[in-house]
Write a structure and sequence with these properties.
Keywords: Membrane, Transmembrane, Transmembrane helix. The chain crosses the membrane at residues 12-33, 45-61, 81-104. The chain is mainly α and 114 residues long. It has two domains: 1-32; 35-113. It has three helices and no strands.
Length: 114
């Protein structure tokens, strides 16, 4: 594939086609969920976002506003640490979000029984 075509297609797929497909597929799946599973899914996504967003936003803020360094090695090290945080934290946060969501669901079910 010629480079100019690839330079056009890659952002198109990453920023328009991919998110559009995810939106459409998730809308179809959401419509077929029962109200109980909608509530559980919404609670799980809320907990996951609560674990995920503060760390990701702080990492992005630190990357853009941190002290400027004239040492290329230190700048590269800081960039690498930020990228590793952005790549790994969503994976690390997922089990904690699932556990916390499960505990919240148990608490809500116990409260509903009373």
């Amino acid at each position: 594939m010629p480079p100019h075509v690839q330079n056009f297609l890659t952002p198109l797929l990453l920023f328009i086609v991919g998110p559009g497909l995810v939106y459409l597929i998730s809308g179809v799946l959401w419509a077929h969920l029962s109200p109980l599973w909608r509530e559980r899914t919404a609670r799980g996504l809320h907990v996951y976002a609560s674990f995920l967003l503060p760390v990701l936003l702080f990492t992005l803020w630190d990357t853009t506003t941190g002290p400027a360094t004239h040492d290329p090695e230190l700048a590269a090290q800081k960039t690498a640490m930020s990228l590793m945080t952005l790549l790994l934290w969503p994976v690390v946060a997922l089990p904690f979000a699932l556990l916390f969501t499960w505990l919240l669901s148990l608490r809500a079910e116990d409260r509903a029984r009373l």
